[in-house]
Amino acid sequence: xxxxxxxxxxxxxxxxxxxxxxxxxxxxxxxxxxxxxxxxxxxxxxxxxxxxxxxxxxxxxxxxxxxxxxxxxxxxxxxxxxxxxxxxxxxxxxxxxxxxxxxxxxxxxxxxxxxxxxxxxxxxxxxxxxxxxxxxxxxxxxxxxxxxxxxxxxxxxxxxxxxxxxxxxxxxxxxxxxxxxxxxxxxxxxxxxxxxxxxxxxxxxxxxxxxxxxxxxxxxx
Length: 221
Description:
By secondary structure, the chain is an alpha+beta fold. It has nine helices and five strands. The protein has a three-stranded antiparallel beta sheet. A two-stranded antiparallel sheet has the order 1-2.
């Protein structure tokens, strides 16, 4: 990979407005791993102090394997600080366009990112979840719709103890639910005086208990 690719990767790192130490370390580790000279690595390290927009990155002419490798590295960079900002999802899509990668190639490269990270020696255990979330966002025919959803604009709302950006975006999670049949008459009695009513199914009320594990969202993990 040449320095032009690293400029594009720098744009991905800067998309959320800050370069985390883990992102910087991952980018420089990649530069060393692909055989760039010490002088080039120092130049890349210095360039990280200057923001660059993904919009200013021109299309890149790489062979397919190199392009997928670069996309894998971009996924690693986005996950290296353990939180994948919605803007980073947008930047990954833009980088995929500039690399000329098909949806299938992006999904393949994203899925390989964890292996690439281990090969480069820059993966920490905490990154597994974030990388897995990125890989899932590019997998399947709903990838574009999911990416569009995760790039939804957010507006800060003032709360009693701070602010919260809404809507909250949930990038990865798990849900568990169980259903029980209950006496419909007793269930109706419970809701007397409210605007609620039980859900009758085949002569009984349905009681549902749900549990959610929000593993990666814009309000934390």
